[in-house]
Write a structure and sequence with these properties.
Elements: E1 3-12, H1 16-33, E2 36-42, H2 47-53, H3 59-66, E3 70-75, H4 91-100, E4 105-111, H5 124-127, E5 131-137, E6 149-153, E7 156-160, H6 167-182, E8 187-192, H7 198-211, E9 218-223, H8 224-233, E10 240-243, H9 245-258, E11 266-270, E12 275-279, H10 296-308, H11 313-328, E13 331-332, E14 342-343, H12 346-357
Parallel strand pairs: 1-2, 1-3, 3-12, 5-10, 8-9, 8-10, 13-14
Antiparallel strand pairs: 4-5, 4-11, 6-7, 11-12
The chain binds 3-isopropylmalic acid and magnesium ion.
């Protein structure tokens, strides 16, 4: 059966402009293989949208996203826009898309490609075989809670943000974590700060209640400070990590770095009608425009799109095994290069991945 999917393509800023066109080549190749027709439409978000329209998420880009089946995003931000007010920074484009598309679940897999075991700063014996997914709540918590802002009080200023979660927000993200765990090693570790925060105490209670319906899954709870330590001490103990927006932001960077390079890791944001797929890394303005960026995180994000938006797990598996073979054959972009390997640029790395795919 043949179907057509409409995909919004947002390269964004910095290296996003280089890696997204490369990932699109892979998207077309996998689409052709499985008879998935794709209709790609590009628009501006982030700093490039600020330069053109004065806002990070123009109406037109948001409308395109809302009317698509999936969004492929590169990265946003750069020094050029750092001085701007919070309300119009490039990052607002990401937060706006997450909120408007209802993307409450962020899946961030951190899996070690064995060819890259030396790229990690940790010992091989610690990181060998790690395969973790961080499931981060993405549209609630302190990122969106009210009240927020900076107010003047008693001759000084006071900055306020609010951590807030409702039962239903916790229930739906817990369900996602248990469902994902069911297709993996059936272990969920829910991470909170229930020894100090009431919102975390609720989080733990609700996750425990949802678990009643998932008795085939092993559930544990861990405080976030301990989790950040355990990730370094013994990362293999984790399968699925379930956590809130703020803790997920921090722990997913930590989990990513276990694998050696943040340039390798994809992500999927789901929960609404439209899924959004993007690399975990940022726009890396220092290497932008030099054909040096690692396209693999974005290419794997395309794989996640096939898996979670088009129901084609095999699309992800094909891409992941092509990447594995390319790494085994010694191809490396600068971020993962070590002597003795073949140094390639963004385009050439994609060429060899496409070659493996064929
Ligand atoms: C991420 C990023 C974003 C976040 C920033 C760029 C707003 O760090 O996706 O992890 O904090 O969520
Ligand atoms: Mg982050």
């Amino acid at each position: 059966m043949s179907s057509t999917y409409k995909i919004a393509v947002f390269p964004g800023d910095g290296i996003g402009k280089e890696i997204v066109p490369q990932a699109v080549r892979v998207l077309r190749a996998i689409g052709a293989r499985y008879d998935v027709k794709v209709d790609l439409q590009e628009a501006l978000v982030g700093g490039s949208a600020i330069d053109e329209f004065g806002v990070p998420l123009p109406e037109e880009s948001l409308r395109l996203a809302l009317s698509s089946d999936a969004v492929l995003l590169g990265a946003v931000g750069g020094p050029k826009w750092e001085g701007l007010d919070y309300s119009v920074r490039p990052e607002r484009a990401l937060l706006g898309l997450r909120e408007k598309l209802g993307l409450f679940a962020n899946l961030r897999p951190a899996k070690l490609f064995s060819a890259l075991v030396d790229a990690s700063t940790l010992k091989q014996s610690v990181i060998e075989g790690i395969d973790i997914v961080v499931i981060r709540e993405l549209t609630g918590g302190i990122y969106f809670g009210r009240p927020r802002g900076v107010e003047k009080i008693d001759g000084q200023e006071r900055g306020i943000n609010t951590e807030v979660y409702t039962t239903s927000e916790i229930e739906r993200i817990a369900c996602v974590a248990f469902e994902v765990a069911r297709r993996r090693h059936r272990k969920v570790c829910s991470v909170d700060k229930a020894n100090v925060l009431e919102s975390s105490e609720l989080w733990r209670r609700v996750v425990t209640a949802v678990h009643e319906d998932y008795q085939d899954i092993e559930l544990s709870h861990m405080y976030v400070d301990n989790c950040s330590m355990q990730l370094i001490r013994n990362p293999r103990q984790f399968d699925v990590i379930l956590t809130n927006n703020m803790f997920g932001d921090i722990l997913s960077d930590e989990a990513a770095m276990l694998t050696g390079s943040i340039g390798m890791l994809p992500s999927a944001s789901i929960g609404g009608d439209v899924g959004m797929y993007e690399p975990i890394h940022g726009s890396a303005p220092d290497i932008a425009g030099q054909d040096r960026a690692n396209p693999i995180a974005t290419i794997l994000s395309v794989g996640m799109m096939f898996k979670y938006s088009f129901g084609l797990d095999i699309g992800y598996d094909d891409i992941e095994s092509a990447v594995t073979r390319v790494l085994d054959r010694g191809y490396r972009t600068a971020d993962i290069y070590s002597p003795g390997n073949k140094l390639v640029g963004t385009g050439e790395m994609t060429d060899v991945i496409l070659h493996e795919l064929a």
